[in-house]
């Protein structure tokens, strides 16, 4: 389940300019190779520290072993403050505090992963679009234990470990984004027959419970 992409949430050309801050250590695009840091081709959906021919720090290897994958949301957190996810990283990069600059960079990098925007359920390019979901639904506090009980139907397709083999990961997904996406399927605003069927069977509190469960699921 991926959030719909709005072009206005990120600008590729602006993101290329932001990437100038990264290119001293990273390459991306045709012919990209490892430098001080690994190349960034195929980044989206990739498990952290998973390129066999690059010597990652212990901190990144621990993060990868713990289930960290690179998606728009995890990249946004990492780019704001790299040490928030990997306290022992060798990176000297202090991070990008401006949210729009991070969104632009994420959209730029997304071009170099497979099928960046061709499939409705593709890994999201940037943060979610605006929505008109009732604030009372978003305000519901989900019960993660109830969500764990309900999650069996989800994890028949979406891997609980966070791996992404053609079906997007939903682990560590922020609650509001999860709830918004599920209600979009339920209201048939998003076109996926299986997800429409599953979401259609769920009540508001059940969706909130699933969101509460998956937001902290790490393995």
Key terms:
single chain, 219 residues, mainly alpha, Cytochrome Bc1 Complex, Chain D, domain 2, 2 domains, 0% strand, disordered N terminus
Secondary-structure blueprint:
Blueprint: H1 12-18, H2 58-65, H3 72-80, H4 99-110, H5 135-138, H6 144-150, H7 175-186, H8 193-200, H9 204-214
Number of helical regions:
9
Distance between the termini: 18 Å
What ranges have pLDDT less than 50 throughout 5 or more consecutive residues?
A: 1-8
Q: Quickly give the CATH architecture of the largest domain.
A: Orthogonal Bundle
The CATH class of the largest domain turns out to be Mainly Alpha
Estimate nothing, just give the exact number of structural domains: 2
Rg, rounded, reads 18 Å
- Element-by-element helix/strand order: HHHHHHHHH
- What structural class is derived from the secondary structure elements? mainly alpha
Query: Roughly what fraction of the amino acids lie in strands?
Result: under 5%
Helix content: 25-40%
Largest sheet: none
What is the total tally of β strands? 0
Tell me the overall shape. Answer: globular
Name given to the CATH homologous superfamily of the largest domain: Cytochrome c-like domain
Average pLDDT, all residues: 82
Report the CATH topology name of the largest domain.
Cytochrome Bc1 Complex, Chain D, domain 2
